[in-house]
Structure prediction request, 157 residues.
Amino acid sequence: MAEAGREFSGSLDLAGLARLAPLLASRQGALTVSLLLDRDEAGTRYLAGRVAGQLQLECQRCLGAMEFALDSDFRLGLVRSEEEAARLPPGYEPLLVGTDPMSLADIVEDEVLLALPIVALHREPHPCAAQQHQEPPPEGEQRENPFAVLAQLKRDK
Prediction:
């Protein structure tokens, strides 16, 4: 397809992305995807793409839903071996291809997973529900030290 310069565009339902599903608070919606398989002026076969959409991720602080605006561009050099991957020009990430057909949806899902934050957290303008409902410690009340038992054991020896 890269030899023919194929171009694809459309939408990809979030419900069909099984590896992404555990990270989502909601599987409703779709991603907008555009892909181009082509060759550059040096003869390198590549897959260039863009994926965009709104994701509902699970905040790792409060476990509530949070909006994440995804807008990611990628450029993958199509290679058949690790030696070819080492010779790719700058600006390409290697994509190892074989004789078996590859699923474009799986490649797009890989790129979405790579574009997600390492830890999904609400941003400061929109604090987590967990932060909003924290009660301040009562004033004047002495909290028991959780290591007091260990200190007592040390004294007993």
DSSP finds four helices and six strands in the chain. Helices lie at 82-86, 104-115, 129-132, 148-156. The two ends are 76 Å apart (CA to CA). The mean pLDDT is 85.
